[in-house]
Model the fold of this input.
Amino acid sequence: MERMKSLLMIGFIFVMIFSLAACNSTSEKPANTKPAAGGNKDGVGTVNIGYTGPLSGPAAFYGERTLNGVKMAAEEINSAGGIEVAGKKYNLNIVSLDDKYLPNEAGANAKRLIQENKTPIIFTPHSGGVFALQVFNQQDKFIIGAYTSEPKVSEVGNKLTVRIPPRYDGYLEPFTSYEMEKFGKKIAFLPTASQYGKDWSDKLKAHWEKEGGKVVYNSSIDFAKETDYFTIVTNALKKKPDVLFIGGASEPTAKVAKQARELGFKGGFIVMDQAKFDEMKAVTGSYDALNGSIGVMPLVESGSPAIPDFTKKYKEKYGETPGSEAGLNYIATYIFAEAMKAAGSVDDAEKIQAQMQAGVENIPDNVKIYDFNKFAGGGFDGELEVAAIEDGKVVPIKLKK
Done:
C-alpha cells in the first residue's frame, strides 16, 4: 500500500511539473502577424508579405532600408483602400524577421514565415538568402522578392524568383573602361566576403584581365566580423594599385574608402552596386574622399518625375534621404500588388508570377521612380544608370549602346 501511495505521489509531481512548463513556455512570434488572406470585422482581408534580411549587425542599415521601402509601399496601398482582388478588398501586412545576413538564418526564417503566416511572397536582400530560399520555394509555392543584382539567381531557372535590381554584369564594361582610362590597369580587390561579393569579384576579375588589366591583390573583408580595415588596406596598397574594387553595405564600404585615403591612396574606386554613393557620403563627410569613384547613380540624382515626391515622403517618415534599397523595394511591392490584382489571387504564387508583366504595366505613374518597362529573364528590365564622383560632385556616365 505504501509503495502504491509513493508511485501515485511521484506521478502527481510529474504531472504538475509538465503543467507548469507548458504554462510558462513562450513561442517567439514575428511582429504584426495576421492570418494570411484572412478577414476582419470590416470585411477586408489581409495578405501577409514576408521579409527576411539583416536587421542587426554591420548590415543592419542596409536591411532596414530595404524593409522601409516595402513597408512604405504597403502603408500607402492600405491607406488608399488596399487592393481589390476577385471582388474582395485586401490590406498588405508586412511580417519581418532578422537573418543577420546569414543564408541559413534566411532559410529558417522563410520556413517560419510560410508555416506561421502563409506568405505568398518573401523579400530577401542578399544573394545568399535568395539561394537558400530557392532550395524549397517552388515546392512550398512562394515567390522570392530577390533584392540582388546577382545574375545567377535568374539563371538557375527558378520559376518563382523575381530579381528586383538590374543584373550587375551590365556594369562591368563601363566601370572598367572609366577606371582604366582615368587611373590605370592595376587593381586590388577588397570587396565584401559574402557569396555576392565573391561572384562579383570573379566576373570583374575576368573582364578586367580581358581588357589588359592586372589584379595585384585579391582579398575580401568579412564585414560581419571585422570593423578595423587598417591591416588589409595597408597590405593592398603595398602592391601599388591604381584602382581599388570595394563594396558591400554602404557604411562599411565607405569606411574602407576613407581608410584608404587616410593611408595615402590617390587612385580610383570601383564601387560594387550594393554600396550607394549618397549613403557612403554620410560616413566620409563629403564626396571629396570618393573622387575618382564609379558606381550606380544615387536615386535622388536620377531623372524620374516621381522621385521628388517619393523623396519628400520618405524623408518625412524615416528622417533620411532614400537610396536605391528603399526605392527599388518600394516599387517592387507596388508591382507585386498589381500582379495579384491581375492574377485574381492573393495566395497562388504561380498565378501571381505569371502576371508580373501586368504588374509592371499597371503601377500608378506617381510611384514610377524607376523606368521599368518589362519583366524579362526573371527580373525587371530597365536602363542602367551609372555615375562617377568628380571634383566632389555626382556626374552621370553615358553607357555604350
Q: What stands out?
A: DSSP finds 15 helices and 15 strands in the chain. Residues 1-31 have pLDDT under 50 and may be disordered. The radius of gyration is 24 Å. The first helix runs from residue 2 to 24.
